[in-house]
Structure to design on (299 residues):
């Protein structure tokens, strides 16, 4: 009996020892897994931080320009189509509009536009403003001829455009490409009531503008020789629509043809020149056969 109890106790102790050993090994394995998991987490976090730091230090890649729908159709029809030609044409057109509205000369912009351009609101405003400038220049010439001091001056000071962007293209009855560009201008205004004139142009309400114009007219009527000086700034974002016939194709020499005369090779001295000063040949269009059809303010 005693021998049996001793044998049973030895078996129980052996079983208890084995169970305890299994528990200890399990805890050791558990802590080992925790250590491995922590190492993986720390390594991944460090790798992510190094990746983000490398991304911040890496030079930013330029974003590709958005290609408007329809441009591929024009390129298939005209493999030599050059969108840069139209972007340059947009900048030239805005410069010539600025010249027309500040000097009164519509001939340079006139060779870049369609006949229907002058019937659009933007075309009408451009034409009316240029006409007013021509009238003021004629009055100034009369004043100079009679020995009187010139009573009005509008002096163009600055023209500043933004980088243009293609926004729309279409191949239908004709090829149509729309370019968006911001451009502004700055003029010095020398005349009676110049400050009120500038205030009227910058007015945010119709009533304020009307009041400022009224003060300008009163100043000019009461003392037409009392000139004052002010600044007149204007600008906005516009979408310029260029068109050409459906079957038209790009001439690779169009961009260079606008810089030098195609007949005698002389270099044009001004962006406003419409003919060669040497042989009097008409100046080629800077946009090839693309013409400005309308300009619409946006934003």
């Amino acid at each position: 009996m005693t021998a049996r109890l001793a044998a049973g106790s030895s078996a129980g102790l052996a079983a208890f020892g084995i169970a305890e050993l299994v528990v200890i090994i399990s805890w050791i394995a558990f802590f080992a897994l925790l250590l491995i998991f922590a190492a993986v987490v720390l390594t991944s976090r460090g790798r992510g931080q190094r990746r983000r730091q490398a991304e911040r230090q890496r030079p930013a890649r330029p974003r590709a320009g958005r290609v408007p729908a329809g441009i591929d159709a024009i390129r298939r029809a005209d493999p030599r189509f050059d969108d840069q030609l139209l972007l340059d044409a947009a900048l030239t057109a805005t410069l010539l509009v600025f010249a027309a509205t500040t000097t009164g000369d519509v001939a340079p912009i006139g060779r870049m536009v369609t006949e229907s351009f002058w019937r659009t609101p933007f075309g009408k405003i451009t034409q009316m403003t240029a006409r007013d400038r021509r009238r003021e220049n004629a009055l100034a010439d009369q004043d100079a001829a009679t020995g009187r001091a010139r009573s009005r001056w509008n002096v163009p000071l600055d023209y500043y455009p933004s980088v243009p962007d293609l926004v729309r293209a279409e191949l239908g009855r004709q090829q149509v490409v729309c370019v968006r560009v911001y451009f502004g201008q700055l003029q010095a205004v020398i005349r009676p009531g110049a400050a009120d004139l500038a205030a009227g142009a910058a007015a945010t309400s119709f009533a304020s503008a009307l009041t400022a114009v009224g003060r300008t007219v009163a100043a000019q009527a009461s003392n037409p020789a009392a000139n004052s000086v002010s600044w007149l700034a204007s600008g906005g974002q516009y979408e310029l629509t260029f068109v050409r016939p459906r079957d038209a194709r790009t001439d690779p020499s169009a961009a260079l043809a606008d810089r030098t005369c195609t007949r005698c090779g002389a270099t044009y001295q001004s962006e406003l020149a419409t003919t060669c000063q040497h042989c009097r040949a008409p100046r080629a269009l800077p946009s090839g056969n693309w013409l400005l059809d309308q300009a619409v303010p946006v934003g």
